[in-house]
Structures are given as C-alpha cells and as structure tokens.
Structure prediction request, 341 residues.
Amino acid sequence: MNTQDQLQETIELLVQKGKGILAADESDPTIAKRFDAIGVTSTEEHRRIYRSLILETPRLGDFISGIILFEETLGQRTGDGTALPELATRQGIVPGIKVDKSKGPLALSPGDEITQGLDGLAQRLEAYQIQGARFAKWRNVYHISDTTPSRLAIDANAEMLARYAAICQAQGIVPIVEPEVLMDGDHTIEHCAAVSEQVLHALFHALHRHHVILEHTLLKPSMITPGKSYPQKAVPTVVAEQTVRILRRTVPAALPSINFLSGGQTPEEATANLNAMNCLAPQPWELSFSYGRALQQPALQAWRGEPGNVMAAQAALYRRAELNGAARRGEYRPEMESAGG
Ligand code: 5MM
Prediction:
C-alpha cells in the first residue's frame, strides 16, 4: 500500500460515528501523579498491569476507535504474552504513539514553553511503525496570562507542530496536532477565545507552509472555557458556542475530525460540553474526543491497584466511553450518569 492509501485507511478507522480516541499516553511523571492519587507506586510493572487492564476492557472498541500510547507501552505485553498494540488491534482499536519529548521553557521568553522531540523523529517513527503504531500525537502548551503566550511562542510552537506533522505524513503515519491552551488561571472565556483564535490561525498557516495534507490530519484542541480559577464556570451551551465559533474561523473544512482534550474538566463536564457542540448545527468536521483524564479517572478510582477491582475499573471505563459515544451523536443527557442510563 502506498503512503497516501495508508494515511487514508488510518483516518477512516479513526474517524467513525459514535467513537473517539482514548489518550493513555501519560509520560512517567504524569502517570506517577495519577497513580499517587490512588495510592499506587508507578513502577514499570504497575503501569503494564494498568494499561493491560484498559486494553482488555471487553468491547472497548464499541466506542473507542484509537488509543494513544506512551513509548514504554508499545513494547509491553499482557500476562498471556500479547503485545499491547496487538491487543488494541484485536479490539478494533488503532494503536498510536505520543512522539513529543515533552515541553520546557522557551529561551528568552519568560512564561512561555516549547515542546521538543524533532531530532531523530523520522527514525523513531520507523521503529514505532514496526511495533504497530499507525498514528502519532504531539502536544504543545500555551499559558494564558497578561503577557503570554507571546507572538514568538505562538509562531515557534506552530512551526514545531507543522514540522512534526510533515515528518509523520512522509512515513504514512497520521499526525494528531495538539495545541493545548491551558485552563490554568483566572482569565475570562473571551480571553481564552482570543488566544485560541491566534494559536489556531498560526497553526493552520504553518501546516500549509509545510505541505501537510489536512485530509490526513486530526486536530486535538482544548475547548474554550474560562480559566480554572475564574469565579464562574461556563455552562455547556456557552462553551459549545464559543468553541465552535473559533473553530469555524480557523480550521479548514478539509480536516476530517476535531478530537478535544479534556484538560482538567471533570468527566461529566467534558461529556456535556462535547454533547452541546454536537447539538449545534452540523459542522464541516466531526466533533469528537481524545480524552485522557475524563475517560480514565473513574476507572483509576475504581481500580486503586487491587486485582479484585479490575472488572469494576473496566466497567467504569466502558461506561465513560459509552457516554462520550452518546455525546458524539448529541444524544447524551446528564440523567444518564446515574446507573443504567
Ligand atoms: C492534555 O493532555 C492530553 C489529553 O489528556 P486530558 O484529556 O487528560 O487533558 C494527553 O494526551 C497528554 O498529552 C498526555 O497525557 C501526555 O502528557 P504529558 O504531560 O505526560 O506529556
């Protein structure tokens, strides 16, 4: 199969009605934080057990079309020796890989950050492909304050994301581009909208300059909300209107799907906000999810590292995926949160 056909096939597998992507690509420091909260030490074996549990969830592929894995997970196996990417494929879930090497300060630009990982990326992708990865993800972060993100941070980060995306596509790997405008701070929803608009404009200009094929690219943005410390939360209809308004101004119709991150929203908020967007008039792209915390939090709470809790954790994950599947179709109702739905 040539590279273009490969990209097209992966896109068709990832973008399916009623389904979204599960982000299980927490780096070591991040998964350590998640495990700390449930009293589990983050050893390689515990991470293997937990991520096997996720992928062994019966019928997870009903609502999950792709899973983003961390490099370590790509090489891990279940208790019976099945490689985790192979297990994903058996569930009808496309395995993908986080390829950025995490963020750090942007030199001489106080308060801004930049993501690294371009060196050797083409070679790493070849190895990941052999291990089963068909798509990749790279995350940039933007801090909202009176002085950030600076113009420099917006442009430099857009350039990095575009170069990553081009390298992926050259090798037949579908890139997910993730420009995360962080929720930290007490900014208004309007401030978040203004920053997001600039970030997305710069990103799509850079993708164009680097010859990235939008038909074979997925966008993973944050929703437009007030900052976490802003005194009032925005209701789902307001988040939906603000988010879709900015996306319509900045994201070309050629892009097949927008898969949101949850970014610190509760599982219920993330589902309700996605649902509200899918209740608006039809959009040029699919509106879906690529949640990490908003899908996994209830499963982690149910598991707590106890072998006897595995089934309960899987049931919690399946339920959250099912509710987001409903939100994908605009059919979620908050009453569905109580058992049975
Ligand atoms: C923003 O984080 C991404 C989506 O997760 P949430 O829905 O929880 O916001 C997530 O894929 C993230 O990029 C990975 O967990 C890797 O993050 P780190 O910080 O470990 O590189």
